[in-house]
Amino acid sequence: MKEVKEGELLWEPSSERKAAAKINSYMQWLHEHKNLYFQDYHSLWNWSVKEIKVFWESIWEYFDLQAKKDYQTVLSSHHMPGAKWFPEATVNYTEHIFRNRGHSDQPAIIHTSERRKVSEISWHKLYQDTIAIQQTFKRLGIQKGDRIVAYIPNIYEAVVAFLATASLGAVWSSASPDFGTQSVIDRFQQIEPTLFLTVDGYQYGGKTFDRTEVAAEIQSSLPTLKATIAISYLDDQATFSSLQHVVHWEKAINQAVKGDIEYTHVAFNDPLWVLFSSGTTGKPKPIVHSQGGILLEHFKALTLHADLGESDRFFWFTTTGWMMWNFLVGGLLTGSTIILYDGNPAYPSKERLWKLAEETKMTVFGTSASYITACMKDAIKPYQQYDLSHLKNISSTGSPLPPEGFLWCYENVKKDLWIASASGGTDVCTAFILGVPTLPVYAGELQCRGLGAKIEAFDDNGMPLIEEVGELVLTEPFPSMPIYFWNDPEGERLRESYFDMFSGIWRHGDYLKITERDTCVIYGRSDATINRGGVRIGTSEIYRAVDRIPDIEDSLIVDIPSPDSDSFVPLFVVMKDGYPLTDDLKRKINQHIRAHCSPRHVPTAIYEVPDLPRTLNGKKLEIPVKKILQGKPMEQIVNKGSLHNASALDAFFQFKEKMKI
């Protein structure tokens, strides 16, 4: 593949695509109804963050949010934390999902997995099944504010159960069944749930994993439970004999009586769900988002930025333990069809998701930067094997997509393709730096800051930067910020997490550059930055240089400060099967880093490890590795239950002992 520079222009939308973009319809509405005219996206963004009350009120009006009780106030205060949006209003999330259910002949959901064939679910069936599960919840005594927890894969039943939960004003939280037992207990115990949903197991990479005993252990650790709903996923005849007070899903679905969904309207700032941080140190933080804040933000992000509508088929590879599942379900708000997949994206080969794109006539393909990079390293060429004529957009998140990943998509997927790399996170359950279909695509750059999100890059003194790398901050309130952390009545944990560095300003923890043309580049976590001789560089830039070498599967770099000399900066690499780490290859790695980053950031030494530790959501753990090498005690390093592969830490403990750092 040819070389590509960060910032190189790769694609521009046609005039037809610009004209059809849903953000243009919104701008036209602003002109007709508010007498506001904006010549381009950037002028619209500037207005949206300078007049945030007017902007978010316009989003309410444009998407016609339904409220049992109307609002009197848009925003209580600009002070953070503590600002409240539309405090007098009462809303219901599920009501907005189903309000247009009779208007579309497209399916609501397409779902498939390693165990299930591709199936389409109509809006009518989704509605009827949600009624049935809501009625079951009500028979079990579920009321507004009760917590419902689910140990469940990314399958159709998960969506139904969530919509039934939200319809009653209850609070949802989910974990994927590949999570370890203690990591699930650490999450669910904190919120004292009333109802537990579980499957009997799951399949991944062609292998089945029975989870009935794990489910029983989770159930016994949750004394507040009144009942458990069991879903037979691995085995249709599963008895769940080790569980107590079980209601079987099939029985719940078939017991429905005639009628419509009953919507419990809750205060705009009442909780919708609890998402959890990765919990790499200590117990995961229980992050609570509001029904109203998520409604507003997801309507905006998924319609105006992702450009979704009734003709779209929206996919994101995710599990129920990652906020992208919640974001994917939000696609139903736009009337689009959402696509669910449960299983290994690389089974039986890395082409599985491209095959799914063809099978489902996918229009929006959401994935991780690591999946695209893996396809690039394996020289996969989807355009040669699959009909991707329906595909209009590839969106990626999870980690920065390097410029080479952008170029690979254009050369190997489709020439006329809108690529939207996005950044946000569990904390806000959205992307607030993302794409828009009316702007060009530049290699390695995120197209824009999201409407209504006052994103800036700050230096250490809290001064805004342009064309320089700084801390990603939000300087104005944002509707999908957490309303609180569960069991944090004084807000201490929330303030420590986001507001300690800059008073009254949200510090997100990423390293950001805003360019003169208002695009953005993310350089990784700011607490993992490499600092040599006062020159800081994001780890993503070093990974980009190493990724150019096909013999290397993955890499991780950390900076260990030394009081007496320059810091120790080891680079750890995972080699592809059959490829040795030779001295010649080490020299090649250093040459790439010197050429593509700077001579200052050539690692002190390069070491091979069998695997890299990752969170349950697949993010590699730079900070815990750094703490291991600094000799921190285990309780300060990482909560092993938060890891996908805790055994990967062993190599780093052994390295620490051997090197005597």
From TrEMBL:
It is an enzyme of class 6 (ligase). Its EC number is 6.2.1.16. Residues 41-96 form the Acetyl-coenzyme A synthetase N-terminal domain. The keyword Ligase applies. One of its GO terms (molecular function) is acetoacetate-CoA ligase activity. Residues 101-477 form the AMP-dependent synthetase/ligase domain. Pfam families: ACAS_N, AMP-binding, AMP-binding_C. Keywords: ATP-binding, Ligase, Nucleotide-binding. Gene3D superfamilies: 3.30.300.30, N-terminal domain of ligase-like. Residues 545-619 form the AMP-binding enzyme C-terminal domain. Belongs to the ATP-dependent AMP-binding enzyme family. This is Acetoacetate--CoA ligase.
